[in-house]
Here is the input.
Amino acid sequence: MKTVTYREYPGADLDLSLTVPKDGELVVDITDLWRIKPLKVTGNIDIQDGGKLTIVQVDFGNFDIDLDVRVTLKEKSEFYYHLAALATATDRKIYTADVVHVGKESKSRTSMFGVCMDESHMEFLGSSDIKRGAAKTWTRQEGKIVNLSSKAKGVVSPALLIGEEDVFASHGATMGSVPDDDIFYLMSRGLDLDTAKRLIMVGYLKPVALMLENPKVKDEAIGLLEKEI
Here is the structure.
Protein backbone atom coordinates (compact mmCIF):
# COMPACT_ATOMS: atom_id res chain seq x y z
CA MET A 1 0.00 0.00 0.00
CA LYS A 2 1.28 3.46 -0.94
CA THR A 3 0.46 6.63 1.03
CA VAL A 4 0.55 10.22 -0.28
CA THR A 5 0.27 13.09 2.22
CA TYR A 6 -0.68 16.68 1.41
CA ARG A 7 0.03 18.55 4.64
CA GLU A 8 -0.67 22.29 4.71
CA TYR A 9 -0.50 22.37 0.90
CA PRO A 10 1.08 25.73 0.02
CA GLY A 11 -0.43 26.36 -3.40
CA ALA A 12 -3.79 27.83 -4.41
CA ASP A 13 -4.71 24.90 -6.69
CA LEU A 14 -4.34 21.18 -6.03
CA ASP A 15 -4.81 18.65 -8.85
CA LEU A 16 -5.65 15.19 -7.54
CA SER A 17 -5.86 13.57 -10.98
CA LEU A 18 -4.33 10.10 -10.86
CA THR A 19 -4.69 6.48 -11.90
CA VAL A 20 -4.70 3.61 -9.43
CA PRO A 21 -3.27 0.62 -11.32
CA LYS A 22 -4.81 -2.81 -11.50
CA ASP A 23 -4.90 -4.40 -8.02
CA GLY A 24 -3.03 -1.39 -6.60
CA GLU A 25 -3.85 0.30 -3.29
CA LEU A 26 -3.36 3.98 -2.49
CA VAL A 27 -4.16 6.15 0.54
CA VAL A 28 -4.21 9.96 0.19
CA ASP A 29 -4.19 12.16 3.31
CA ILE A 30 -5.10 15.84 2.89
CA THR A 31 -4.85 18.10 5.94
CA ASP A 32 -5.16 21.87 6.24
CA LEU A 33 -5.27 22.69 9.94
CA TRP A 34 -3.95 26.26 9.93
CA ARG A 35 -4.53 27.37 6.35
CA ILE A 36 -5.87 30.91 5.76
CA LYS A 37 -5.55 31.17 1.94
CA PRO A 38 -8.29 29.91 -0.44
CA LEU A 39 -7.80 26.49 -2.03
CA LYS A 40 -9.26 24.93 -5.17
CA VAL A 41 -9.05 21.13 -5.50
CA THR A 42 -9.88 19.33 -8.75
CA GLY A 43 -9.17 15.93 -10.18
CA ASN A 44 -10.17 13.12 -12.51
CA ILE A 45 -9.35 9.83 -10.81
CA ASP A 46 -9.36 6.46 -12.57
CA ILE A 47 -9.30 3.26 -10.51
CA GLN A 48 -8.43 0.21 -12.59
CA ASP A 49 -9.72 -3.35 -12.04
CA GLY A 50 -9.22 -4.48 -8.45
CA GLY A 51 -7.66 -1.17 -7.40
CA LYS A 52 -8.47 0.61 -4.14
CA LEU A 53 -8.23 4.30 -3.22
CA THR A 54 -8.93 5.90 0.15
CA ILE A 55 -8.91 9.69 0.60
CA VAL A 56 -9.00 11.12 4.14
CA GLN A 57 -9.39 14.90 4.24
CA VAL A 58 -9.31 17.07 7.38
CA ASP A 59 -9.95 20.81 6.96
CA PHE A 60 -9.91 22.80 10.21
CA GLY A 61 -8.25 25.97 8.93
CA ASN A 62 -9.91 29.34 8.44
CA PHE A 63 -10.10 29.39 4.62
CA ASP A 64 -12.38 29.01 1.60
CA ILE A 65 -12.25 25.77 -0.38
CA ASP A 66 -13.86 24.54 -3.57
CA LEU A 67 -13.31 20.81 -4.12
CA ASP A 68 -14.59 19.10 -7.26
CA VAL A 69 -13.37 15.58 -8.03
CA ARG A 70 -14.66 12.82 -10.30
CA VAL A 71 -13.80 9.18 -9.69
CA THR A 72 -14.33 6.35 -12.19
CA LEU A 73 -14.36 2.78 -10.89
CA LYS A 74 -13.63 -0.27 -13.02
CA GLU A 75 -14.42 -3.92 -12.20
CA LYS A 76 -14.04 -4.89 -8.51
CA SER A 77 -12.39 -1.57 -7.69
CA GLU A 78 -13.07 0.43 -4.49
CA PHE A 79 -13.18 4.10 -3.49
CA TYR A 80 -13.60 5.61 -0.02
CA TYR A 81 -13.72 9.32 0.78
CA HIS A 82 -13.80 10.50 4.40
CA LEU A 83 -14.05 14.23 5.17
CA ALA A 84 -14.05 16.23 8.39
CA ALA A 85 -14.49 19.97 7.89
CA LEU A 86 -14.79 22.89 10.29
CA ALA A 87 -15.96 26.29 9.02
CA THR A 88 -15.64 29.44 11.10
CA ALA A 89 -15.94 33.22 10.62
CA THR A 90 -17.08 33.76 6.99
CA ASP A 91 -15.49 30.61 5.53
CA ARG A 92 -17.11 29.18 2.41
CA LYS A 93 -16.35 25.47 2.03
CA ILE A 94 -17.84 23.47 -0.85
CA TYR A 95 -17.06 19.78 -1.48
CA THR A 96 -18.28 17.89 -4.57
CA ALA A 97 -17.38 14.23 -5.08
CA ASP A 98 -18.87 12.47 -8.11
CA VAL A 99 -18.36 8.71 -8.33
CA VAL A 100 -19.02 6.80 -11.57
CA HIS A 101 -19.29 3.00 -11.46
CA VAL A 102 -18.60 1.45 -14.85
CA GLY A 103 -17.30 -1.97 -13.74
CA LYS A 104 -19.05 -4.89 -12.11
CA GLU A 105 -18.76 -5.47 -8.35
CA SER A 106 -17.25 -2.04 -7.72
CA LYS A 107 -17.70 -0.35 -4.36
CA SER A 108 -17.71 3.22 -3.08
CA ARG A 109 -18.50 5.18 0.06
CA THR A 110 -18.35 8.94 0.56
CA SER A 111 -18.68 10.16 4.16
CA MET A 112 -18.68 13.90 4.83
CA PHE A 113 -19.00 15.43 8.29
CA GLY A 114 -18.92 19.14 8.96
CA VAL A 115 -19.46 21.78 11.65
CA CYS A 116 -20.37 25.40 10.86
CA MET A 117 -19.84 28.30 13.25
CA ASP A 118 -20.26 32.09 13.10
CA GLU A 119 -21.42 33.18 9.61
CA SER A 120 -19.78 30.37 7.63
CA HIS A 121 -21.21 28.41 4.71
CA MET A 122 -20.65 24.73 3.86
CA GLU A 123 -21.95 22.45 1.11
CA PHE A 124 -21.64 18.67 0.65
CA LEU A 125 -22.51 17.75 -2.93
CA GLY A 126 -21.91 14.90 -5.35
CA SER A 127 -23.41 11.84 -6.95
CA SER A 128 -23.03 8.10 -7.29
CA ASP A 129 -23.65 7.12 -10.90
CA ILE A 130 -24.01 3.40 -11.61
CA LYS A 131 -23.81 2.74 -15.33
CA ARG A 132 -25.63 -0.05 -17.11
CA GLY A 133 -23.58 -3.22 -16.89
CA ALA A 134 -22.05 -2.38 -13.49
CA ALA A 135 -23.94 -5.23 -11.82
CA LYS A 136 -23.49 -6.09 -8.14
CA THR A 137 -22.14 -2.62 -7.39
CA TRP A 138 -22.33 -1.24 -3.82
CA THR A 139 -22.43 2.50 -3.10
CA ARG A 140 -23.21 4.66 -0.06
CA GLN A 141 -23.28 8.44 0.40
CA GLU A 142 -23.34 10.08 3.83
CA GLY A 143 -23.41 13.80 4.62
CA LYS A 144 -23.95 15.57 7.93
CA ILE A 145 -23.54 19.25 8.77
CA VAL A 146 -24.15 20.66 12.23
CA ASN A 147 -24.65 24.40 12.69
CA LEU A 148 -23.44 25.87 15.97
CA SER A 149 -24.66 29.32 14.98
CA SER A 150 -28.02 30.58 13.74
CA LYS A 151 -26.16 32.62 11.11
CA ALA A 152 -24.29 29.65 9.65
CA LYS A 153 -25.62 27.91 6.54
CA GLY A 154 -25.20 24.36 5.32
CA VAL A 155 -26.31 22.35 2.29
CA VAL A 156 -26.23 18.55 2.00
CA SER A 157 -27.40 17.24 -1.38
CA PRO A 158 -26.39 13.68 -2.38
CA ALA A 159 -27.69 12.13 -5.61
CA LEU A 160 -28.05 8.56 -6.85
CA LEU A 161 -28.14 7.81 -10.58
CA ILE A 162 -28.97 4.14 -11.11
CA GLY A 163 -28.71 2.52 -14.54
CA GLU A 164 -28.48 -1.12 -13.40
CA GLU A 165 -30.91 -3.30 -11.45
CA ASP A 166 -28.68 -5.69 -9.51
CA VAL A 167 -27.02 -3.13 -7.19
CA PHE A 168 -27.11 -1.74 -3.64
CA ALA A 169 -27.28 2.06 -3.44
CA SER A 170 -28.17 4.31 -0.50
CA HIS A 171 -27.61 7.76 0.90
CA GLY A 172 -28.21 9.73 4.07
CA ALA A 173 -28.28 13.49 4.58
CA THR A 174 -28.59 15.42 7.84
CA MET A 175 -28.34 19.15 8.43
CA GLY A 176 -29.30 21.46 11.27
CA SER A 177 -28.52 22.61 14.77
CA VAL A 178 -27.28 20.44 17.62
CA PRO A 179 -30.16 18.33 19.02
CA ASP A 180 -31.57 19.82 22.23
CA ASP A 181 -31.51 16.44 23.95
CA ASP A 182 -27.76 16.14 23.39
CA ILE A 183 -27.15 19.62 24.76
CA PHE A 184 -29.39 19.00 27.78
CA TYR A 185 -27.63 15.73 28.60
CA LEU A 186 -24.18 17.32 28.58
CA MET A 187 -25.29 20.37 30.55
CA SER A 188 -26.90 18.10 33.12
CA ARG A 189 -23.40 16.73 33.69
CA GLY A 190 -22.11 20.17 34.64
CA LEU A 191 -20.95 21.59 31.30
CA ASP A 192 -21.86 25.10 30.18
CA LEU A 193 -23.61 25.60 26.83
CA ASP A 194 -20.52 26.62 24.85
CA THR A 195 -18.44 23.69 26.13
CA ALA A 196 -21.29 21.27 25.43
CA LYS A 197 -21.51 22.43 21.82
CA ARG A 198 -17.76 22.19 21.35
CA LEU A 199 -17.67 18.69 22.81
CA ILE A 200 -20.31 17.63 20.30
CA MET A 201 -18.24 19.23 17.53
CA VAL A 202 -15.22 17.13 18.54
CA GLY A 203 -17.41 14.04 18.57
CA TYR A 204 -18.45 14.64 14.94
CA LEU A 205 -15.01 15.40 13.55
CA LYS A 206 -12.54 13.30 15.57
CA PRO A 207 -13.45 9.88 14.06
CA VAL A 208 -12.32 11.05 10.61
CA ALA A 209 -9.11 12.59 12.00
CA LEU A 210 -8.31 9.21 13.53
CA MET A 211 -8.34 7.70 10.03
CA LEU A 212 -5.32 9.71 8.90
CA GLU A 213 -2.47 7.38 7.92
CA ASN A 214 0.42 9.66 8.92
CA PRO A 215 0.83 9.41 12.75
CA LYS A 216 2.33 12.89 13.14
CA VAL A 217 -0.41 14.57 11.12
CA LYS A 218 -3.04 12.57 12.99
CA ASP A 219 -1.71 13.76 16.35
CA GLU A 220 -1.69 17.36 15.13
CA ALA A 221 -5.31 17.19 13.98
CA ILE A 222 -6.59 15.54 17.16
CA GLY A 223 -4.57 17.93 19.36
CA LEU A 224 -6.06 20.93 17.58
CA LEU A 225 -9.57 19.58 18.05
CA GLU A 226 -9.13 18.81 21.72
CA LYS A 227 -7.94 22.37 22.39
CA GLU A 228 -11.47 23.48 21.48
CA ILE A 229 -12.98 21.74 24.52
